[in-house]
Design a protein that fits this description.
The protein is α/β, with parallel strands linked by helices and 532 residues long. Helix content is 38%, strand content 26%. The longest helix is centred in the middle third of the chain and has 18 residues. The protein starts with a strand and ends with a helix.
Length: 532
Amino acid sequence: MNPLLEVKDLRVSFGGKEVVHGIDFHVAPGEKLALVGESGSGKTVSALSLLGLVQNARVTGSAMFASEGKTRDLLTMSERELLATRGREIAMIFQEPMTALNPLYTVGDQIAEVLQLKEGLTRREAWDSAVEGLRATGIPEPERRAQAFPHQLSGGQRQRAMITMALAGKPNLLLADEPTTALDVTVRSQILDLLGEIQRHNGMAMLLITHDLNLVRKFADRVAVMENGHLVEQGTVAEVFANPQHPYTRKLIDSRPVRDVTEEAGAQVAPVMQAKEMQVSYPVKLPGIRGWFRKGEFIAVKGAGFSIAPGRTLGVVGESGSGKSTLALAALGLIPHRGELDVVGRRWGPDAAGNKAIRRLVQVVFQDPFSSLSPRMTVEEIVGEGLLVHEPALPLPQRREKVIQTLHEVGLGETQFPGLLQRYPHEFSGGQRQRLAIARALIVQPQLLILDEPTSALDVTIQKQVLALLMKLQKEKGLSYLLITHDVDVIRAMAHDVMVMKDGAVVETGPVLQVLDTPREDYTRTLVAAAA
């Protein structure tokens, strides 16, 4: 069978520096090829360059694309020809939907626009098709969600909206850049099933760019592995996973998180954080004339109760919209809640007395270190900021010494990074930025860290390193963790106890290995099966 896309000697350079070094690969009609590698390997740049989406780059080689009875070189097409090809013959799903979607238009309008431009539908027909597309990708209440702006949807819902937009033009080739990174494991399976069904129906091929090896193992036909701009290995998924030839491929396959926690419960001690019947709700607009006079109520967390002992990790797992991130915000004292929430025996909440003293004991590490670290502050300012709040009288030399010591504890030092204290976040990799975020939280000597998807934005090898660091710090400092994630593998690797949430309610809780190995609830079984 002739390939749908055949790429030969693809080279991409910026300012005279080559970042993709003459790679060759092909995609057959209806085939799923996974392009795998860590951040900086060149996989995304390679895909974007095929559609002329890389600015200020010199792209050479050839990318022969067969469509509508003729074969054309994508790299020699004019901008007008590429505009006609993008979205109709070749579509792309981008990694971060919040930056890819227009914040000024509803998601329904954005999907309908593609259908009007590419399919020639009327506005009414395009809107109805957009709603049906959202329904097909598993978004609940698609009629209502179509009228929402991107910021009003969860991360997973935004990604599903962008997938709907990419599939609207019925492309022959779909370039999918980390299409399921923001999705829960169950929704991830639904999206992959949907893409597989569409593929079988219209013969669409896929070039999947990802670092998720589980996804590759389940979904792709062939895999190509990239390292530092070079294609180091390619073959069928079965062959490469069973018998990897290149050391880098073996390193990726061996990067699954490894459990390394202290299992003993220890003596009975007072919990670091304890919640009883905690409820969080938001006002919502009621439909029709009722909305003129009063507000409705959406209950995001329904009577949650939990306890975290010193030196232990409680993992909270669930799909987007399950209430786990809202629970984290309440635990941080950032949003109002009903019920009881105590930290080291003291009441905790937005209006509680003595909040400043308690806030020092509860710190947070966010999902994306690039957006949570100020780009205008140096490493010294970022890590030392907490000391300015909680120890304002501490002289500069002692504060700097504490910053250096904390950075050393997370594996960052002057030997590795000359001039470390005066560097800025953009000068570090994703894993190194997350280490900075951990150092910022640690420097005030907290007792509890709230970890909000701390590794979901990282490559598998870096994820393993960050998890190992967190487990090491827990043993050395006796830290407690409230771990918020949809990654069952991460929960299994570092949690002592787990709490499963669905639609704002706690559906199952208990020791992590007991719950994950012998779940009682159907929902928990679904989560575990989807992650296997």
